[in-house]
Fold these 3 entries.
Entry 1:
Amino acid sequence: MPPALLNSELFLQKCDSLTKIKQLQSHLITHGRFQFYPSITIKLLELCALPPIANLPHATALFHHLHAPSTRHWNAVLRGLAQSVQPTQAVSWYAAMSRSSRRVDALTCSFALKACARALASFEALQIHAQVVRFGFGGDVLLGTTLLDVYAKVGNLVYAQKVFDEMPERDVACWNALVSGLAQGSRSGEALALFWTMTEDERLKPNEVTVLGALSACSQLGALRGGEKIHGYIVDTKLDTHVIVCNAVIDMYAKCGSVDRAYRVFEGMKCGKQLITWNTMIMAFAMHGYGEKALEIFEEMGRNGVCCDAVSYLGALCACNHGGLVEDGVRLFNSMAGRGMVPNVKHYGTVVDLLGRAGRLQEAYEIVKSMPIFPDVVLWQTLLGASKTYGDVNMAEMASRRLVELGSEGCGDYVLLSNVYAAHERWDDVGKVREAMQRRDVKKIPGFGYIEVEGVIHKFLNGDQTHVNSCEIYSKLDEIKFKIKDYGYVAKTDQVFHDIGEEEKENALGYHCEKLAVAFGLISTSEGTPIQVIKNLRICDDCHVVMKLVSKAYNREIIVRDRARFHRFQDGLCSCRDYW
């Protein structure tokens, strides 16, 4: 090895800053050797383009000094761009390389695909996939896994499955990518089926990444039984030594309605608790309406020397909100500044919701007006929702105007304002709102709910008659209506905001998806078995009353998870204490 090259190699090992890189670069250029040692220039590019230095402008400038950059030179810069905060630049770099005389290799495609995954660049990923096939790289297992991962992340699960099916060899990483993709793409049942298939193959034993995807799938479906089985697998395989896995188990139990199990996992953790562990537990209690318990965990953090962050405060504020702890929530919000914490828009949104739910609309509005940051759509929607609850037409109209100014096209905004008008029997104004919805082609989101029975997920829409047991379900609903009238039930027809007769209103209320799901639960499970339903929208007042009475009349615990929280109905009462 020539002395100059040897000295350069030795100096490269000490290049831990941009200054030293520039010194070596100057030395090579001064002695006319910059173009003649590709191994040195490739290493220089890698050092410059990747962390901890990651100075991409200098890396590209250095690259352009090369007369005939090789594939490895191109790849060095491409890899850095793919890991940068602007991964789309990597896609552009790949396109430029494809137009050059330099041939791309499997690594080039891999770096570019990883950039597509980070940038959610679906169309570009398809183009690169076509080139992968054309260049003959289709048999590369690592590249296949990367392709699968990018399709999963951009939501193209059809192509992800196709790549998976065509792979000549599979490893745990490709199964993990598909499990996570299916879970994130609302195909949770398939994700769980794939997980259990993996457990039966000695070569593809699930690892901590796999169980995270499977637990996420259970959380989405509210599949408590499936979650329990996966937790058992985690314990048996000693995967509970990973704190991230324990955090996911806590979150799964909370989202599947078993906050007690979540807390037992939290208390029994042997791998040590991280800040995210405490935050997950706080939010779990908040979702279930256990405000006091959430605040206890929040205070316990400090006693254990764990510094709370913005997420901790948000969880504690949500707990106060769902638990009706108005003064505690206001005190907590005001204490943030004293701990050097600057509230963000989510903190403001939660305290506005807290005051709005308590009927303190003017206070909520004053907070919105005094915010140092611009109020977003969610804040005005929160105020509009509170206006609907308390029938404040003026506040509702003002919030609605703000939403229009911000360009909000959510169907919920129109529905809430329409409901405020309808509650005051201002049918002409209701008609104007509906006309505006039609002009702007705003569609109302259909309500639907899920229930798990013997490991099978059953989905119901409002007024659904497509279920195989539809006749029995509707017969059971008739029985329920007759039975709960003995407990004083009167349909809350004031919640049906249409200018129609009382009987039609009762029919509109009677077949909401959660009622159908509970009726199916009653005919499909043994006496005393808890019934759990997941609903995509907020539970309505009438369904809330019905669930309380059904829990008493049939001696069943009924758990409903709506889009905001859990309601646990037992013996005629709800865990939310009728505050939600």
Entry 2:
Amino acid sequence: MVHLAPKVQKFDAIITKSTVIEDGTPTRYHLKTSQNSLAESEPYKKFTFGERDKNKPHKAILLVGETGTGKTKLINTMVNYMLGVQREDKVWFEITDDQSDQSSVHSQTSSITVYGFYLKESPMNLTIIDTPGYGDTRGVQKDKEIAMNLLGLNRYLGDWNNALDAVCLVIKATQNRLSDRQSYINDAVQSLFGKDIAENIVLLLTYSRGAHPKVALTAVKEANIQCAVNEQNQPVFFLFDNCQGETFLEEYQHIQEQSWNLSLKGIKGFFSFFDTIKPKPMKMTQDVLKQQEQLEANVSKIQLHDQDMEKNLNIVKQLQNDLEKYKKVVEDKNNFEKDVEVSYREKVDVDPAVAKMATCCTVCEENCHYPGCWWASNLSWCSMMKANHCTVCTNKCHYTDHVKEAKIYVTKKRKEKITDEILKNIYLENKKKISDRESDVKEWETKLQDLEKQKIKLVMEAFHCVHSLEMIALNTDSLIILLHIDFLIEKLKEIKEPEKAEILEDIKKRAGEEKHRALKYMKDKYEKSSGQGK
């Protein structure tokens, strides 16, 4: 149980460190805090009141819940309890900054806000980690950012011991059966943590009027929210009115008194809860968040990988089509040599029955005077010569190119092979193309094989992420798994891992109808937030 310091003598000093928000009953003050100077791009803000004494016990609590459940007012309720403020003091101190008000459904901040409350007179230090409200209008991607920001929180909080004393699920006391949206939010919150933190999770039920929160507890049970339980195996919860810090007119002071007493009882019970539990290191929870991040990254990589494989496969198909076309051309054009009948001249002996001598041109291979050539031995005297040139042969050759003998030229025919140079060039060109395409096909098929190996690696890594989450996550069939489970089942079958696909099928069956309704809600939000629904 926390023992609080005397209050009266310290309020004046605290008020001097505050600014007035609103005069009235009570008068509302804003505590002057110091703020860590982080870059605007960083998803963290830290506000500190006082200076931390590291010799004091330190308590760290994390607040999570739906947008509009009143987490901000709970933070201020805790601070006023630590300060020892009572209703009769007619003061109310607030530590929350303007940007941390998560009561608006349209809240635009996605930063995690950390409040360090180090009151000198208090026997302990208190760190409150306020997550942005889940399920607002900005979509699933913003909810995922909250989880990833929690993963990197320790890097920015050098004075945090990286352990949580309590995780507070903030739920409205009037909450009845969870809608698809609320089931999604519950799943998103439960998916943040490791199994070891279940006994440190408590319910802070807001907007209560003091009645037993039967409908809210029934909704919690139906939603299978895991949290600390009492000796009757019922969820540990604390009730809050959420309006004790508001300014009331005199005639409504009795309402403020009821609100104050209810919330005081709740906050006392909550701080007493610290005495019953041990803080839990964030390691397992951080491992859960890392596995979720890795799963998301692997699924994204597999999808991009499939696109690359499809492109490469299309290239291989086109190359193979080209290859077949070139082979067909080569097949059709391989007879570029053919046999043809050609004429040629050959000297043969003169038939004595026809004539004994003939004058023939050795250049034109023609019979210039046959038959009937007379006896003159000087060929220039031959009747076929004129001005020493033959008047018969094709080239009108000089008489010295002629011979007179008992032989004549005759025309004969023979078969010879000739080459169609056009066909030959087409043939050779396509033979080269075949060689080039075969080399290209081999290169791209090697790339496809490498991509297939990478795909197998990515799919198996994604499966092991799911398997690891099964082992360490508080929420073993979370929507973040179910969102991708059909895709992973298909990919495991593609890489010939049917047994592992069956394991994921079992997770899908185990989820139940309510989870699948919430999954549909999440898919709709996921498509809208990622632009896929356009």
Entry 3:
Amino acid sequence: MAEDRKSKEEKLKKKILEMIQGNQVINATQQSALLDPLPPREKVIGTLDNLFNLKNRSFRVIKVEDLGNYKIYIQVPGGKTDYDFIVWQAIFNNSNNIVELKIPKHDDLGKTYLELKRHGPILDEYLINATIRYIRDRWPLNKPQNNVIVHYFKYLNQNLLPEVMEFFLALKWVTLQEDANYPPPKYLGSLYTLSVFATLEVTGDLKTLRKIIRFKY
């Protein structure tokens, strides 16, 4: 079963790669900017549908974030709900060739989270606070008031900020995806995503995380 899922993902990845390289994607980075701060969990489905017409289930690849060599795309349709989509992150080299394309899973986010915390005392101390503010409290990334980046990382080495922004942009779309797939109040949605980082704060390693977390909504 796992091999079947992996095979399907590889076939899908090939198709997504061809569409990106063939410039067959919709550029919606301006619409994505309107998702700062993230909408309340109960309003995610309506907001995403208004911005990206998720009710239209025709196959589309939409570019939603662009940080130069780091980009995020969403692919419609997904398969869990009528508003489902799949998140893809792409890393480009300086020749604008894709060197990595993958679906960022909770495990990937957890790994990045732990790596960031090893970059010094500021990230080690405040990354969990910023993550909670961003997911649970819906603080913005870029707007002046209660901006999580300025509030927590004002004195961080500027060379590390691109990595921090990449983490939060991937987290942004996984958060939105979970709230769309498993909408509150019936389900917890992105609060399960938040539980990954809370668990990592307690356990400190991915191996233990995998034993504890079971994503049953």
